[in-house]
Design brief:
about 170 residues
Length: about 170
Amino acid sequence: MNAFICVALLVATAFASPIKDEAVVDVVQDTEGYFKYSFVSKNITREEERQHDGSIKGFFSFVDDSGTRQTIHYTSGPDGFAAEGDSIPADLPEVADARKQHKVISEKIRSLLPALKSNNLVDELPEVPLTKEEFLEAVSEALNPSINVAVPDSPEVAEAKKEFYKSFQTALE
């Protein structure tokens, strides 16, 4: 009887052992900065490739808690880092507006630089050897005044400021 129990326990243990998640890894690279890396398993996949110019593109995917495969594609290079995927939340309206405003400002400032350079006001970028007044004038021309509006205090912040200033004045006395 004891032998039967031991055999039954061994069989139950064998069937209860976790299934191994085997992975395949592949790496290719040269001596000039190029590489390609891939990792593939049951629940996770990642692939990345770096070009000789330093730019990188790739993706990774994983199975989330609900069993859905999520995939994120990304690039990185002279224009910065960018990622795309259904699981990346969209910008809030305020962030989207700020991005648009930043783009407008950047384009206006970039449009001024050739004129500044042609008038020998700028020797080379990114250093801009202008007087403070010249710099402020160039920037003020480029900026949209409606962008530089102070954010009004909420009632809570206004009340907290009053309390702070009151306690500060008390501490000074």
